[in-house]
C-alpha cells in the first residue's frame, strides 16, 4: 500500500533521512522505532509532503505521491495524527472532528461520527467542550479520532503515547488495534515506546540516524538482544 | 528583627516601604516630566524649574499608594471565584439578547427624540468603524492573521468610488461592487507575498503595505490628485432620486417623491441607514461563513497551521480568501466614507486608522461580533462623550483603554460560541427516522 524507496530529506544542509526503504502492506500495523533525532517524524512528514523529499520515491497504492501537495496526499486517503496532538484548542471537540472530515464526503459525516464516538465514548461526553480543556489522553484520542474522520486507508500516528500515563497508553494502543482489526485501516506508527509499539505491530523497522538498520516482525524485534539493549532496558 | 517593627504592625511597615519605592519612581519620572519646563526667552529657549509641583506629585503618589495599602488591609481582595456555569450561562443569554436589542435600537434611532444631526453623525461614524471592525475581524479574529495595514483596503475602496464616480459618472450602487472587487484584488495582492509569514513578521509586512498604498496615493498625482485629495465626490442619492432642496420643475427629489417637506437631515438619515445595512450585511456574512467549511478552516488555521495541513486543508487558499473577503468589506466601507465626506485625501488613511480598527477588534475580544460593537462605541463614541474635557480628552481615553485591559485582558467578550452542536445532528437524524418509527 505504501512503498518508500531510497528516500532522502534535508532540512537546509542537514540530511535527516539518508536513503530510507520501507513498505507497509494493506491491513498491517507497522511500527517505526528509534531514538530522538533519528528521523522518525521527518519520515512521516515527508510522506505527507512537508517537506518534500530531495531524492527517492513515496508510492501510495499505484500513485507516486512524492511531489504531490499535502492536501492532495490527504485527499488520496492518508491521514496523520501529528506529533504533539495539535488539536484546535479554542474549538469544540465536535468542531475538531468536523475539521478532520474536511477531505471526506460530507454524506458519511454522521456515520463516521458515530464510529469515532463508539471508539472513544469519552469524546461523545465532551463533544461541546473546548479542545484545550481536555486532558492529555483525551486530546490524543481526539487527534486520532480527528484523523479517522477523513476515512483514511492509511493512518499515520506520530508518537501517540507521548507524555501519557501508562494506563492511558494501554487504552490508546488497544484502540489502535481495534481501528486496525475492525475498521480495516492500515496503521503506520512512529514510537519511542518500543515495547508497546512492537507488541502491537505486525512488523517493525528501526531507524538510526536517518537509515533503517533493522526490520522484522514485532515479536522478532522485541526478542532481539540489540533492540532490548538500545530501546527497552531500564524503562519497562 | 526588632528593626522591622519601627512603627505599627508589619503590614504597615511593608506598605510604607512599598509607598516609598513608588514615590522614588514617581520622583525619577517627575523631575524631567513636571520639574522642567521650556519657556520662550528673548535669547531663545530657557528652562524653568517647578520643584513644588514635583513635590506635590511625589507626595500624591506616596499618600495614594499608602491609602491603597491600607484599603487592601481593611478590605482584603476576595480570592477570584471560578466562573460558575450558571453565571456564564446567564451572561451568554444576556449577550444573545443584546444583539437583537441593539439592532432594534439602531433601526429606531433616527426617529428617537434626542436624535439630532450631531447624534446621527456620531452614530454614522461609529457604524463605519463597526463595519471596519467586523471586516478586520474576519482576517484577525477568525483567520488569526495580524493585519496592521487594513486601512489600505479602506483607501482603495474610497478612491475607487471617488475616481469612478468622478471620471465615468457611475452611481454609488454601481461603484460599490467595483470598489469591493478592487479592494479584494488588493487583498490577494497583499496575501500572496505574505503566505509564509506569521505573527510579528506578517504584522510588519502588512504595516508596510498600508504605508505603501498611502504613499502611492500621495505621489501618483495624475490619478489621485496627490495630497490635495479629491473633492466634489457625488453625494449619495435615494436610488437615483437626489436629495435636492429645489429640483427642476420636471425632475423629482426625495421630498417631492414622498410628498414631505425638504429637510437636510433626510440625507443624513439615509446615510445612517445605508451604513447600518452595509454593516449588518457584513455581520450576517460573517455569522453565516463561520458555519461553512471555509469559515471553519479560517478558525482552524488560527488555532494551528500544521494541524490544518495534516488534515488536508489548503492553507494558501484559506489565507487568500480571508484576506480577500476582509479587504472587500473595507472596500465597501471606503466607498461609503467617500460618498459621505464628499472629499478624500491620503491623510484620512494613516496608520492610526489601522491601529484604531485593530484596537476595536482586540478590545472587543477577538472574534466576538457583539464585542466589536461595544468596543467601537467605546473607542469612537467615547472620545465624543468626553469632549468637554478638551485637552485631557486623550488622557481620559487612554485611561479607559488601560482599565478595559486590566478588567478584561482578553477583550470585552472573549468567549467563543461553537459553530455546531450535536443537537443539530440529532434533530436531522430524528427527522429521518420518524417515518420509520410510525411503521408498527
From TrEMBL, chain A:
Matching InterPro entries: AAA+_ATPase, ABC_branched_ATPase_LivF/BraG, ABC_transporter-like_ATP-bd, ABC_transporter-like_CS, BCAA_Transport_ATP-bd_LivF, P-loop_NTPase
Keyword line: Amino-acid transport, ATP-binding, Nucleotide-binding, Transport
SMART domains listed in its UniProt record: AAA
KW Transport (keyword) present: yes
Domain ABC transporter: residue ranges: 2-234
Keyword Transport part of the UniProt annotation: yes
Gene3D superfamilies: P-loop containing nucleotide triphosphate hydrolases
Pfam families documented for this protein: ABC_tran
GO aspect biological process, one term: L-amino acid transport
GO MF term (any one): ATP binding
UniProt family annotation: Belongs to the ABC transporter superfamily.
Protein name from the UniProt record: Leucine/isoleucine/valine transporter subunit ATP-binding component of ABC superfamily
Organism: Candidatus Defluviicoccus seviourii
Gene name of the record: livF
UniProtKB/TrEMBL annotation, chain B:
Main location: membrane
InterPro entries documented for this protein: ABC_transp_permease, LivHM_N, LivM-like
One Pfam family named in its UniProt record: DUF3382
Transmembrane segments: 20-39, 51-74, 94-115, 122-142, 148-166, 173-195, 201-220, 270-289, 320-339, 351-380, 392-408
Membrane topology term: Multi-pass membrane protein
Protein location: Cell membrane
CDD domains per record: TM_PBP1_LivM_like (cd06581)
Keywords for this protein: Cell membrane, Membrane, Transmembrane, Transmembrane helix
Record bears the keyword Transit peptide: no
Keyword Membrane found: yes
Domain High-affinity branched-chain amino acid transport system permease LivHM N-terminal, chain residue ranges per copy: 16-108
Residue ranges that the Swiss-Prot or TrEMBL entry lists as coiled coil: none
GO molecular function: branched-chain amino acid transmembrane transporter activity
GO cellular component terms, semicolon-separated: plasma membrane
PANTHER family: HIGH-AFFINITY BRANCHED-CHAIN AMINO ACID TRANSPORT SYSTEM PERMEASE, HIGH-AFFINITY BRANCHED-CHAIN AMINO ACID TRANSPORT SYSTEM PERMEASE PROTEIN LIVM
Protein name (Swiss-Prot/TrEMBL): Leucine/isoleucine/valine transporter subunit membrane component of ABC superfamily
Organism, scientific name: Candidatus Defluviicoccus seviourii
